[in-house]
Amino acid sequence: MQSVLKLFDFNLFSALDVLLVAFLLYQLYNLIRGTIAANIFIGLALICLLYFVVKALDMKLLTTILGNFMNVGIIAVIVVFQQEIRRFLVLVGRNASLQRNRAWWRYFLGKNEAEKDNYKRIKPIIDACKSMKQTHTGALIVFVKDYDEQIYQTSCEVVDAKISKRLIEAIFQKNGPLHDGAVIISGNKIKSASCILPLTDNSDLPAQFGLRHRAGIGVTEANDATALIVSEETGEISYAKHGRVKMNISFAELEKLLNKDF
Ligand SMILES: Nc1ncnc2c1ncn2[C@@H]1O[C@H](COP(=O)(O)OP(=O)(O)OP(=O)(O)O)[C@@H](O)[C@H]1O
Questions:
Q1: Ligand 1, closest atom to CA 232?
Q2: Cα(192)–Cα(184) distance, integer angstroms
Q3: CA separation (Å) from 173 to 4, 124, 139, 213, 233?
Q4: pLDDT at residue 161 above 60?
Q5: Sign of torsion, CA 31 97 105 107?
Q6: Contact at 8 Å (CB) between 233 and 136?
Q7: Cα–Cα distance measured from residue 190 to residue 156, given in angstroms and rounded to the nearest whole number
Q8: Where are the strands (E) in the chain, listed by range?
Q9: 115/202 Cα distance (integer angstroms)
Q10: pLDDT tens profile 164-205
Q11: Ligand 1: does its nearest atom lie under 6 Å from the Cβ of 241?
């Protein structure tokens, strides 16, 4: 009974504490929404909630069982969510870095200057997509802010070249030796080509999505990356981020998305 009363021993800092925890949980949920990890997260959250309820109600047996589970739970959480934790830490680190934070550049340079600068990088990619859409050339382009050689170089051909429309078209040309797999772009460079990416195991995707789309979605689930997919079958352009995909997007929309994410 005493612990029930303690629950109501509430002050301003307790409210702030609850609000901050809710905010953190919301951010975490946003990071993993639409991925398999979301279901695990909901399951763990329910077990935590149950633990606090049975503890407050002084139900000893259940408290002990769930308490033991919670003691090893933190290790389980680190193992299960290692990709998400990694992504979260990269996100925090990147946002703390003034040099890489475009919002700061926009503040100092003015929004228009920064956007004009970014448009120079994006234009060749959009132009290449326009022509690949017309010729029904399948393509998968992944954008990463922090290129992690350990992840991408093992299965890829290193390119390390300036972004250009003709180079992108040449890579994805059907008979070319590098057309299979994904191109990785980071900063101002095409870093690598012909990369084998992890496939998503999301079972709610449209039936027409084959390996190219599944690889494009998969890479955004496991890494801080976005992916652009040109369908060989239909010429349609899709865009994946955080494991979710927008289908059949227009070039104006693609420009907006790349401007925001790349
Ligand atoms: N794990 C992978 N990582 C990167 N690319 C892959 C991977 N698996 C397959 N691909 C690419 O996808 C191509 C096969 O695409 P598939 O036809 O299965 O995809 P799709 O999603 O139906 O796309 P499309 O509409 O272009 O046919 C392969 O030729 C290869 O280039």
A1: 26
A2: 5
A3: 68, 16, 9, 18, 15
A4: yes
A5: positive
A6: yes
A7: 12
A8: 139-144, 157-162, 182-186, 189-195, 225-230, 237-241, 244-246
A9: 34
A10: 999 999 999 998 999 999 999 998 899 999 999 989 988 888
A11: no
Q: Which of 62, 80, 98 is the last residue of a domain?
A: 80
Domain boundary among 80, 101, 135: 80
227 belongs to a structural domain: yes
Structural domain contains residue 94: no
**How many residues in the chain?**
262
pLDDT tens readout for residues 101-136? 555 555 555 555 556 667 888 999 999 999 999 999
Place of tokens 């959250």: 45
Residues 102, 108, 111, 114, CA torsion sign: negative
214-253 pLDDT, tens digit per residue, is 999 999 987 779 999 999 999 999 999 988 899 999 999 9
Q: Report whether residue 210 contacts ligand 1, using a CB cutoff of 6 Å.
A: yes
ipTM: 0.95
User: What is the SS3 assignment for 52?
Assistant: helix
Distance from the alpha carbon of residue 88 to the mean position of ligand 1, in angstroms: 28
Helix (H, G, I), strand (E, B) or coil at 156: coil
Residues 241 and 128 in one domain: yes
Same domain membership, residue 146 and residue 65:
no
* Residue of 179, 180, 211, 248 best suited for mutating to test ligand 1, as the one with most atoms within 8 Å of CB: 211
160 neighbors 189 (Cβ within 8 angstroms): yes
Work out how many domains the chain is built from and give that number: 2
**Residue 34 and residue 123 in one domain:** no
